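Hi all, posting the design record for the shared folder.

TITLE: backbone redesign
STEP: 1 of 1
STRUCTURE INPUT:
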């Protein structure tokens, strides 16, 4: 093999050195992963809403269960007789007659039920017609918690409350607006003129109109001491029907 000329050998040597010193091509960079927030900067999770405190507890003894049953029975008696009397008056006369019957008899019948059963009982609403139906504080709390809900969303409530003077049975029965109720509780401009006459004369501060079928009108309520020695005799003319 013939030796390369000096100039060719020098050029070949320079080429080899240049190839050796040439840096490798940089590897293609991978895309950065999205930054994860640190525990210090991450938004805190929304705290769960605190559960509403229950106004009482479930009955735990036979005596407490019997007291709840008797208390609810008194509330249903009141609701049943009032509903029956209004229906009778409506059948026998005009809506005005039904409005007058309710105005004249409701408080009397409530008193009868209390006297015979020994149970404190009443009707109440956040929109009162008769100021005498103003609710006790525990009923008022329930009414205000449910006043914006339809009647179908309100369930009967039965509790035992541990009072310093002894356990007390309490019951609430929601009153839903039925078609018959609109005769006296519907939009005021749609009421019979005789009904408006009764309301204007007896209840100048009436707030119990403007309802629609399915609204929550209010509630029947009842309470008695668990240890109370009460007679559970029948009330003449009362029937243990629904709340009405």
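Okay, here is what came back for every position:
SEQUENCE:
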């Amino acid at each position: 093999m013939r030796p390369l000329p000096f100039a060719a050998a020098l050029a070949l040597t320079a080429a080899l050195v240049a190839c050796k010193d040439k840096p490798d091509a940089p590897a293609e960079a991978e895309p950065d992963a999205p930054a994860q927030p640190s525990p210090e900067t991450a938004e805190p999770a929304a705290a769960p809403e605190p559960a509403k405190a229950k106004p009482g507890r479930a009955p735990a003894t036979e005596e407490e269960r019997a007291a709840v049953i008797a208390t609810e029975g008194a509330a249903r008696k009141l609701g049943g007789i009032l509903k029956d009397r209004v229906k009778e008056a409506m059948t026998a006369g005009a809506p005005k007659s039904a409005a007058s019957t309710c105005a004249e008899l409701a408080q009397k019948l409530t008193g009868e039920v209390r006297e015979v059963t020994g149970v404190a009982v009443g009707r109440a609403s956040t929109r009162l017609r008769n100021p005498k139906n103003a609710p006790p504080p525990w009923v008022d709390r329930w009414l205000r918690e449910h006043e914006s809900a339809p009647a179908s969303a309100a369930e009967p409530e039965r509790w035992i409350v541990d009072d310093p003077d002894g356990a007390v049975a309490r019951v609430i029965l929601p009153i839903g607006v039925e078609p018959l109720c609109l005769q006296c509780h519907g939009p005021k401009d749609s009421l019979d003129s005789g009904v408006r006459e009764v309301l204007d004369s007896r209840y100048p501060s009436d707030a119990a109109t403007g309802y629609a079928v399915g609204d929550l009108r209010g509630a029947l309520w009842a309470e008695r001491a668990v240890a109370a020695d009460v007679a559970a005799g029948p009330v003449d003319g009362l029937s243990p029907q629904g709340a009405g």
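COMMENT: Residues 62-92 form the longest helix (31 residues).
Let me know if anyone wants the other runs.
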